[in-house]
């Protein structure tokens, strides 16, 4: 791909990135390292990077590594615990750690403490059946190298040393169980996105805030043409590129639809907003040092898994509990209420209707959540933290999540709780749809994009990719020696063993 020159009529680039969140900034930084002479532009609608789903107050779960998230280790119909998804997500998070370590060492990122902090990950349940499940999960994970450090207990006193807020005031006769892994982290993807964006600006990337891409179409010359609106100046212009990445969060669906690529046909989106209880009371926050996940209530979707999290935001320790679901037809927190209706097309109408008909439990759950009072939300918190004082907690609105609706192999509409990479057949355009565990696995997703969209360059890039990611091409769970070496190295680089 040769570097393109600009013209006054149309700004031309090799690569255009849409959106200033963790996905676009990660891809841009990787590409600039692999091909420093490529011309790259990034357009972000808001006035700063990482303000939508990447922002720590908008991100439902940070540092996803499947260490404590119980929906990644379901019990099968045969009674066995499936660990496949947990292994896959943890492998991807190991890639994230390696890339961030590489960027800290080469100066792309600043002090690790500005975006990542060591934090134990804890799974916590109560009740006979749930306690049996957690013990079975522990026994299924313990033999795996990726989860070798997992601990488990049903002793209330021991749990109190892990997370005292969980046990104080709890009925000693209630059966509880907890598992813990100390190698967990908390990640501020907003800070990470902004640091990468600043690096891109200093690497001759044409990064423009307050610029909204309104449409993407194929030009007669085969290049992708983007209509861009400079909102501050009230001006519109056209930019083109050989490759386009649509990393616009909930806004990606409409832009991929405007591109006309066949691969987006049948895809729809279902927006779900999140709300959290937040405590900035230091007398509370300083007594909880863990990310604690429980089990979703019966009939609730995986996105509703309750968790009591320590968060480090701009150097300050806070607590968040939730999520509580809300509903808006907007696909972005700063989006439009017309996003959902305008996303409906003839090709995705039937799949969306089928999803609605087969997910009445989700609709019921959302209706119940929307009407739940503040008092009831505090009651849910007290299942985790029995002595919670409602005066110490405020309700905040987090970001929007657009769950993917698509056709399955049989052509039937299904709701997917994950992240979907959609790419054109010729690899010149790609975009990302979906939600969790997106941000935490951004590097793996972007490396998968490179393999899909740049096959001709991949062999040339491979030595450089292996410098960035020492485990590139390997599964760490199958190589305990390499896992131990990489874990030690990244812990040191990211200051996680201090």
Structure overview:
- The chain is globular and about 75 Å long.
- It has helices spanning 22-34, 84-105, 128-141, 156-162, 189-201, 252-259, 282-285, 339-343, 346-358, 360-370, 374-384, 442-453, 455-468, 480-493, and strands at 11-18, 40-44, 116-118, 121-126, 151-153, 176-181, 185-187, 206-209, 211-218, 224-230, 235-246, 268-279, 291-293, 307-313, 316-326, 394-407, 413-416, 419-423, 429-434.
- The longest helix has 22 residues, at 84-105.
- It is built from 14 helices and 19 strands.
- Helix 1 packs parallel to helix 5 (189-201) and helix 2 crosses helix 12.
- A nine-stranded mixed beta sheet has the order 5-6-4-13-14-15-12-16-17, sandwiched between helices. Strands 1, 2, 8, 9, 10, 11, 18 and 19 form an eight-stranded mixed beta sheet that branches. A two-stranded antiparallel ribbon has the order 3-7.
- The chain has a single domain (11-477), classed as 3-Layer(bba) Sandwich (FAD/NAD(P)-binding domain).
Write the layout of secondary structure elements.
Layout: E1 11-18, H1 22-34, E2 40-44, H2 84-105, E3 116-118, E4 121-126, H3 128-141, E5 151-153, H4 156-162, E6 176-181, E7 185-187, H5 189-201, E8 206-209, E9 211-218, E10 224-230, E11 235-246, H6 252-259, E12 268-279, H7 282-285, E13 291-293, E14 307-313, E15 316-326, H8 339-343, H9 346-358, H10 360-370, H11 374-384, E16 394-407, E17 413-416, E18 419-423, E19 429-434, H12 442-453, H13 455-468, H14 480-493
Parallel strand pairs: 1-2, 1-11, 2-8, 4-13, 11-19
Antiparallel strand pairs: 3-7, 4-6, 5-6, 9-10, 10-11, 12-15, 12-16, 13-14, 14-15, 16-17, 18-19
Helix pairs in contact: 1-5, 1-12, 2-12, 2-14
């Amino acid at each position: 791909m040769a570097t393109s020159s600009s013209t006054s009529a149309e700004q031309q680039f090799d690569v255009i990135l849409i959106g200033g969140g963790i996905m676009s900034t990660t891809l841009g930084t990787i590409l600039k390292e692999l091909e420093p002479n490529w011309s790259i532009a990034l357009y972000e609608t808001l006035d700063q990077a990482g303000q939508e789903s990447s922002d720590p107050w908008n991100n439902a779960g940070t540092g996803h590594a499947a260490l404590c998230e119980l929906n990644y280790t379901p019990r099968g119909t045969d009674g066995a615990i499936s660990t496949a998804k947990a292994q896959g997500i943890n492998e991807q998070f190991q890639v994230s750690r390696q890339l961030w370590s590489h960027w800290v060492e080469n100066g792309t990122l600043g002090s690790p403490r500005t975006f990542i902090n060591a934090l134990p990950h804890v799974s916590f349940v109560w009740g006979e059946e749930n306690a049996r499940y957690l013990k079975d999960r522990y026994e299924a994970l313990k033999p795996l190298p990726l989860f070798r450090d997992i601990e488990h207990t049903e002793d209330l006193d021991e749990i109190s040393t892990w997370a005292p807020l969980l046990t104080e005031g709890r009925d000693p006769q209630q059966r509880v169980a907890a598992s813990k892994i100390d190698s967990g982290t908390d990640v501020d993807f907003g800070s990470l996105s902004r640091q990468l964006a600043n690096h891109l600006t200093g690497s001759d990337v044409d990064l423009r805030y307050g610029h909204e891409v309104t449409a993407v179409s194929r030009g007669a010359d085969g290049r992708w043409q983007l209509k861009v609106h400079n909102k501050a100046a009230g001006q519109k212009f056209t930019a083109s590129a050989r490759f386009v990445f649509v990393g616009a969060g909930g806004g990606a669906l409409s832009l991929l639809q405007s591109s006309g690529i066949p691969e987006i046909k049948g895809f729809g989106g279902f927006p779900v907003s999140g709300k959290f209880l937040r405590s900035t009371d230091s007398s509370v926050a300083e007594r909880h040092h863990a990310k604690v996940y429980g089990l979703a209530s019966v009939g609730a979707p995986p996105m509703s898994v309750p968790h009591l999290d320590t968060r480090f935001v701009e150097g300050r320790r806070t607590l968040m509990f939730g999520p509580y679901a809300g509903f808006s037809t907007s696909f972005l927190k700063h989006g439009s209420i017309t996003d959902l209706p305008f996303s409906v097309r003839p090709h995705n109408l039937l799949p969306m209707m089928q999803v609605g008909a087969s997910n009445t439990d989700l609709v019921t759950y959302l209706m119940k959540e929307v009407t739940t009072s503040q008092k009831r939300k505090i009651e849910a918190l007290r299942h985790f933290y029995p002595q919670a004082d409602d005066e110490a907690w405020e309700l905040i609105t987090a970001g929007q999540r657009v769950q993917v609706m698509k056709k399955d192999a049989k052509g039937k509409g299904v709701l997917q709780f994950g992240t979907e990479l959609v790419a054109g057949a010729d690899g010149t355009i790609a975009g990302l749809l979906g939600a969790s565990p997106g941000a935490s696995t951004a590097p793996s997703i972007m490396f998968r994009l490179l393999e899909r969209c740049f096959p001709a360059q991949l062999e040339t890039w491979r030595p450089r990719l292996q410098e960035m990611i020492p485990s590139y091409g390997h599964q760490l769970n199958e190589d305990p020696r390499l896992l131990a070496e990489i874990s030690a190295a990244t812990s040191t680089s990211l200051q996680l063993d201090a």
